[in-house]
């Protein structure tokens, strides 16, 4: 085992994702040699502002875009040959396809949904953000799948580090092939530009009730956004979804109506200047992130609010 | 097309969660359980694929809280076979659970394994990808679209901002389903009851030994709620008045 901490760098459309810097910063704090692992094709330059001691860079046309199979193989072979004590992977769409496979292939324990990490223990945010679970590691080595936004990004930025080119293992005969990226359809309201967002969740119960919250958005000259289940049910278009797999928003005022505050939702809105939550459940995790909270039925409070404004 | 759908029961988060006397687990005595919502999406997608292409859907679950009911509900929705893997899986890690599922599934013919992208209890990683690695098949997770044609599968994997990556892969493979193309179907209790009488719940002895999470829970605790939030109280009218003032001052 070496004393190094691997940070698996994540990029999409030629841009490093913030979670990479967040993990690099955390790795620095934990101590030991910080090694960023970057895979891509002609993507070496992306490591230019990493705060790391070393960058391992693997270049191959097969790695140009994320591919669960190819990335999994390459990262497992690097972990096997270098034996880092810790591996930090984002709990992101890409990271979900990397972390568990690495755990099996390299026989290293994995802790998911990590929001706090120290030498022998990791805290996972479980039950939709309603419980924190601290785990004790049996050995020293482990992998943590880190929730985006759990740590600050700034400490992970620096002036780059020496890049070591590593030859890609044999990537012929892949069973999974990347075809293309599909951008979401445009033409709808841009919720990332709205200064007031009224955001609706499953508490609204039915599409028929949407006018109640739309009225509030209209009154405030804002836009209506939502949690994911509202979009999955096709009550609102994808362009209105806030969160991990939706959009990141930073309005002046964010009013969460009947949204529980699952970590995947929080990822998208915790940067708002003023967060107001209306929820019948006093224990809803959204209240941990809100500046103002109301434990009440949205069907009582929202119409009353529209009238007062 | 043979599709296997591992499902599991998880605590219903609508209930208030409490930590038990050990300080390391939920107080499960009064907990209500429900099928993990993403497993429900996986089952729906599997049923839609079967309706399109023929074949069979098998729902499989490790023994656990209310699991018979969950499997009978899957049967009522249209699963052709429902299998309960018996054994002591109480408190089992996801590594152990995935290994036990893999041991049963590897003896069955399958083209696709569809299961939920995650559950609220995945302390040591998500089942879909663990399972794929124990089975030695490729995987894609966070899937929002599956199309099968000519022995190949086209898969949509979702990133942030609604951006989707399209992959083409050969079968068999394991997919972690984020969302089915339709809202998961609902079956009335009467049909579930009927399935309880008519469906054949198969039982297979299972074993997930030989692997471990490599960690154990040392403490479970509630995050501080309302730590930073100023809670407003009063009648709906009073609250609305306070909110209106706050909102106006922040805009
Ligand atoms: C990979 C991945 C990506 C994801 N990406 C996203 C994402 O981008 N965005 C996102 O939002 N989710 C995302 N999710 C889903 C996320 O895990 C949660 O399932 C989702 O955020 C829950 O939405 P909700 O809060 O509307 O519903 P619920 O969790 O069901 O909460 C509904 C809330 O409404 C309250 N309520 C009920 N009735 C009333 C009433 N009358 N008045 C007031 N309150 C009421 C309840 O107390 C409850 O708190 C993702 C999940 C995965 C696995």
General description of the model:
- The complex is a heterodimer of chains A (309) and B (251).
- Chain A has 8 helices and 17 strands.
- Chain A has 309 residues and is α/β, with parallel strands linked by helices.
- Chain A has 2 domains: 163 residues, Rossmann fold (3-Layer(aba) Sandwich), CATH 3.40.50.620; 118 residues, 3-Layer(aba) Sandwich (Rossmann fold).
- In chain A, the strands form 3 sheets. A 9-stranded mixed β-sheet of chain A has the order 9-8-7-10-6-1-4-5-11, with helices on both faces. Chain A has a 5-stranded parallel β-sheet with strand order 14-13-15-16-17.
- In chain A, a hairpin with a 2-residue loop joins strand 2 and strand 3.
- Chain A is elongated and about 65 Å long.
- Chain A starts with a strand and ends with a helix.
- Chain B is α/β, with parallel strands linked by helices and 251 residues long.
- Chain B has one domain: HUPs (Rossmann fold).
- Chain B is 29% helix and 29% strand.
- Chain B has 6 helices and 13 strands.
- Chain B has a 9-stranded mixed β-sheet, sandwiched between helices. A two-stranded antiparallel sheet of chain B has the order 2-3.
- In chain B, helix 2 packs across helix 5 and helix 3 crosses helix 4.
- The model of chain B has no long low-confidence stretch (mean pLDDT 95).
- Chains A and B meet through helix 3, strand 7, strand 8, strand 9 and strand 12 of A and helix 4, strand 7, strand 8, strand 9 and strand 12 of B.
- Bound molecules: flavin-adenine dinucleotide (FAD).
- Flavin-adenine dinucleotide sits at the interface of chains A and B.
